[in-house]
Amino acid sequence: MAYQGFASGDTTKDAFAPRYFIEQGHQIALCQSFAKNMGLYGERVGAFSLTTESKDEKSRVESQIKIIVRPMYSNPPVHGARIAATILADPKLNAQWESEVKGMAERIIEMRSVLYEKLTNELKTPGDWSHIKSQIGMFSFTGLSPAQTKALAEKAHIYMTADGRISMAGLNSNNVGYFAECVDKAVRGQL
Prior knowledge:
- By secondary structure, this protein is mostly helical.
- It has helices at residues 11-14, 16-23, 55-69, 79-89, 91-122, 130-134, 146-156, 176-188; strands at 29-33, 46-50, 139-141, 165-167.
- It has a two-stranded antiparallel ribbon. Strands 3-4 form a two-stranded antiparallel sheet.
- Helix 4 packs across helix 5.
């Protein structure tokens, strides 16, 4: 579960699926990242959790995980993990973090709306852009082709993956207009 809280602005709401599966009696494996939603980008902070049926099964699973993990690293860095643990354990810091995550999510959602409005209503960019608003979270697939993404990089200095995936967090009120105009030109073959 990457970017928990960035989909809705509520970390609890974004954790609905794993909690629901556990309530339904499923055993799950859950990977969580705290790198981006806590601003710990270079720290690779996260957790790997498993649910098991019994303490005996937990012991067996844990021993197997240790066999897998041990050759990869002996003592992982703890700096980021300690920061995350401090934030999650302290009610005041946790509330502040939750508020900041909500703010980040709201900004990303707003940028989706602004981009959609610019492409559809202002620029009348050919195509269906409803996916910009229907997708959730930090990233969005634009539907742009590799040729269009290459033109955007070479001629407008707008960089994204060749399949058109962009970070919505990279858009802001100062650059969303330029981005939309360049996407419009790329779609029309005028870039």
